[in-house]
Amino acid sequence: MIDRIALVTGAGQGIGRAIALRLAAGGITPILVGRTAAKLEAVAAEITAAGGQAQVAALDVTDSTALRALADHIGDQPLDALIHCAGEALVRPLTESTEADWDRVHAVNLKAPFLLVKAFLPHLKRSTNASVLHIGSITVYVGAPGVAAYTASKTGLLGFTRSLAAELKPDGIRVVLLSPGPADTPMRWAATPDYDRALLIQPDVVAETAWHLINLPRGVTTGDVLIESLAML
User: Which CATH number belongs to the domain containing residue 219 in this structure?
Assistant: First the structure.
């Protein structure tokens, strides 16, 4: 019998993987969501080897049909946390960014959270202490060059999160944006391969913060959470 479950997107690597491992270590069964089945299976194997449980759902988070099918598969099981870690980065000057770039970044970073909440809200409402946690970005608060599309998508996510928090307050569902500074993840290295490693936040730090947020007592929430490296201040 599964006592608590959480859905984690982008769970095959980086922050999503770290959060999934932390949840499993704490007795929560994560549903690992991502596009690459092999990566998800590898994370599930790590969790199983450590004595935990995990489920794997390889799908595209921008595919509303696939998300609804997963929601149907869960059935009447309450969902205790929905954590959107999947992200699309783009480091490119605006003059070199294309319409396709803009659409791709916004589809994963902003449209997907909308689709996820639409699909799984009935399951969240069945939980006695549900959380929706969106992984944002420090770029929302600090303007930076070369990341206009990415920043716009994460700023939209901030607005969506705040509005959703107010809308779901009567249901006792907390909705929080957790925004880390640059983190030591594959997405970071793919976007900026020459970045100074000393300035990066480790995914485990973000995961521990996520664990704390989703385990706040029912009826308790917080505002936006920003995690920064002291080395960057």
Answer: 3.40.50.720
Q: What is the mean pLDDT of the chain?
A: 93
Catalytic residue status for 150: yes
What confidence category does residue 233 fall into, taking pLDDT thresholds of 50, 70 and 90? low
How many separate domains does the chain show? 1
Q: How much of the chain exceeds pLDDT 90, in percent?
A: 83
Q: How far is CA 61 from CA 50, 57, 114, 115, 139, in A?
A: 27, 10, 10, 8, 23
Catalytic residue among 14, 15, 140, 150: 150
Give the structural domain span for 32: 5-232
- List 175's β-bridge partners, or say none: 132
